[in-house]
Design goal:
The chain is an alpha/beta fold. The protein has eleven helices and eleven strands.
Length: 279
C-alpha cells in the first residue's frame, strides 16, 4: 500500500467523525507535516511498520487526541517542532507574540533574552531565528518539557541555553543574569474556566502549563513581573500572552509594579491577548 491508499481508506472515518472540511484539513496536515518527513513518496509502497504508524496516527485522532500530538509535530513560524502531551501545542496567538518581540529585538551581540515557561521552545527558537546573535535562555519547571525543547533546538539548528527552574521560587532567581527582553506564555486559565475550554485541550494538554487557581489567577504575572523588575536592564521589555478576561487587571498589576509604557494588544480574533511593558 501507499500513503495515499491508506489515507483514502481512513478518510471515511475522519469525515464521519469530523465532517468533510475538517477531515480534509487533517489529511493536509498529515501529508505536509507527518508523511513529508519520510523518504518515500506518496505513491511508493510502504513496509508494515510504516502502515501501522500511519494507521496509529489516524486511530489517535479518532480517539480525540489533538492532531499535533497524534503526529508528534506542530508547525510554528515555519518550524516543525516536536510536541507531546508534556508541552502545550503552539498556537497562532503565540506567533503574534513572537511578531511583537521581533519589533523589539536589538542586534547587539551581548543582548540576552529569556523565555519563561518555554514548553516546546517555540518562542525562544523564534527569537533565535530572527536574531542569530542573541543569547537566549529557555526556562521551564518541567524537565520533560526541556528535553523536548532541546530536541527542537537540535532539529532546527537554533542553539539555546536551557535552565530548569520554577519561576515561582524566588530563591532561584539569583542564578539568572540580566536580560534585555523577556517573553512568557505562562499558565493563565482559572479552574472555573474549564467549562469553556475545548475538550481536547482539557483532556490532553498539560495542566501544569495551563491552569491556575481561581483564588490567584495572576500568580505568574505577579511573580514574573517582580522577577523582571530585578532582572531587566534599564529600558528592558517584558511581553506576555494573557487571559483575554484579565487584560485590565494585568495592566493594573504591572502599573503597580512600576512598569511604564504598558500596552494591551488584541489578537487576530479581536481578543485582548498580549501585554507589553518596559522597565
Amino acid at each position: 500500500m501507499t500513503w495515499n491508499e491508506i489515507l483514502e481508506v481512513q478518510i471515511v472515518s475522519l469525515v464521519k467523525q469530523f465532517g468533510e472540511r475538517e477531515a480534509a484539513a487533517m489529511v493536509r496536515i498529515i501529508k505536509e507535516d507527518y508523511i513529508s518527513q519520510f523518504d518515500k513518496g506518496p505513491q511508493d509502497s510502504l513496509g508494515s511498520m510504516e502502515v501501522l504508524s500511519l494507521e496509529g496516527v489516524i486511530t489517535s485522532i479518532l480517539r480525540g487526541h489533538p492532531i499535533q500530538y497524534a503526529i508528534g509535530i506542530a508547525l510554528f513560524h515555519n518550524m516543525k517542532l516536536k510536541v507531546t502531551p508534556a508541552v502545550l501545542i503552539p498556537r497562532p496567538e503565540t506567533e503574534e507574540l513572537l511578531y511583537w518581540a521581533k519589533e523589539l529585538l536589538n542586534d547587539r551581540i551581548d543582548n540576552h533574552y529569556l523565555d519563561i515557561g518555554t514548553g516546546s521552545g517555540c518562542l525562544a527558537l523564534g527569537i533565535k531565528k530572527y536574531l542569530s546573535s542573541a543569547q537566549v535562555i529557555a526556562l521551564d519547571k518541567s524537565e520533560t518539557a526541556l528535553e523536548i525543547a532541546k530536541e527542537n533546538s537540535q532539529s532546527t539548528g537554533f542553539q539555546l541555553e536551557f535552565r530548569q527552574l520554577d519561576i515561582l521560587d524566588k530563591t532561584s532567581w539569583s542564578t539568572l543574569p540580566k536580560f534585555n527582553g523577556i517573553v512568557s506564555n505562562p499558565p493563565y486559565i482559572p479552574e472555573n474556566e474549564l467549562k469553556i475550554m475545548g475538550a481536547s485541550v482539557v483532556k490532553h494538554e498539560p495542566e501544569m502549563a495551563l491552569m491556575v487557581s481561581n483564588e490567584d489567577p495572576l500568580v505568574f504575572y505577579r511573580n514574573i513581573g517582580a522577577f523582571a523588575q530585578a532582572h531587566l536592564v534599564p529600558n528592558g521589555w517584558l511581553l506576555f500572552e494573557i487571559n483575554e478576561f484579565y487584560g485590565k487587571e494585568t495592566m493594573a498589576l504591572l502599573t503597580k509594579q512600576g512598569f511604564r509604557n504598558i500596552e494591551l494588544r488584541k489578537d487576530m480574533q479581536g481578543k485582548d491577548r498580549m501585554i507589553g511593558c518596559w522597565k
